[in-house]
Amino acid sequence: MIHRQGIPAFKNPFDGDGWPWTGYMAPCLAVTPTAISGMIRTVVGLFRGASQTRTGVGSELTEINCLSTATRSMFRSYSQVVRRASLRRGMLSRHPPSRPASDFVRIVEVGPRDGLQNEQRPIAPAIKAELINKLARAGMRNIEVGSFVSPKWVPQMAGTSEVLSLIEPVANASYSVLVPNRKGLDDVLNLLSRSPSPPPITEIAVFTSATDAFSKANTNVTVAESLARLAPVVRAALDAGLRVRGYVSVIITCPYSGRVDPRRVREVARELLEMGCYEVSLGDTTGAGTPESVRAVLEEVTKDIGVGQLAGHFHDTNGTALANIKTALDFGLRSFDASVGGLGGCPYSPGATGNVATEDVVYALTGGDSYGDVGEPYSDTPVVQGPAWDVGPVSLPLLADTGSWISSVLKRETTSRAGKALLARKERERRLSESAQAKL
After folding, report:
1. Which of residues 229 and 218 earns the better pLDDT score?
2. Which of 23, 240, 309, 406 is 20 to 30 A from 72 via CA?
3. Which of 24, 27, 21 is nearest to 9 (CA)?
4. For the chain, what is the largest distance between any 2 Cα atoms, rounded to a whole number of angstroms?
5. All domains of the chain, ordered by start, with CATH?
């Protein structure tokens, strides 16, 4: 097993928890990881070699046993000191990195909330509800349906309560809402408690950012103040039986302060998880991310957090969203946000375009299945297929229809390339069918 710095990860043979020595000790001590690795190799090698030696001479055997006992004791004590120092300085992960083996990829549909919040024209609650219902019928099983924010700040999110009353719940679907503060949560809880037929809300999402500049532009508070304000909200939501998901905005660049230090992203994500969020979505809000910059952030964040607790949220401003998702998939992430038709943008990130289109993500993960069998085989040897990803019961044709429909409502074309291609092929097939019928 290779440690992320390229040093062989060495397990402490005397520590019952099996913590990796290399990389966790180095930040706590004024020595390099290489020096630590070398020291441990030497001492453990000496111990193991001595333990396996059997000379049959009583005095030599006694000396070996003493060496074994002393070495074991030294490692136990040293391990305790290092781990206590690490915990005090926040160096040891409470969520050791783990790479999920599953090929299931969860797609969280954020179009009804993140996709519509930047629209200039008002959208009727009935239209929003129809979008949600179409998405559910298309097989989307995780849908963020709106937010309980002040209409003064985000006018398009007005009427979320009415939208919820018009939703037609689908079995096994999870519906969530964004909540910025305690007032927003209270509105959700009041709606759930007073309604004879409560809306199907099982989850809320809370959000903060990786920079003070963006946080102040978005919520008028610093990141630290934002986290302090969110902690009681998360506790109250969990006490009410709701799941909580967290967002961290501007993980790559901030429109107000420039390039973001990945260590800030790691710290904020860790805080959200420690509050009780089951997952943290890392948002490339400006869409400036590249595979290299995304990998750099993930390398840093997973020093404290397992990949199973992270999601990716990539805007497609520069056309790199799918490449960034591929990078995150290779790194081990299995949860991604997407917006049907590529809807979106951010009111507080000038110039940022929409989220990556849900249709494009689904096609990138499963589109190879639509090719059919090989038309002209090269030989009798079967064609080697690539990895097959499972995105659940999602229908790409229905998604494309939904993206086209909501785009036409907004008086524009869908920005989904996969959606456009699928609709063009559907139209071509329709014309060919009509032409064939006319010849009969």
Report:
1. 229
2. 23
3. 21
4. 104
5. 1-92 (no CATH), 106-368 (3.20.20.70)
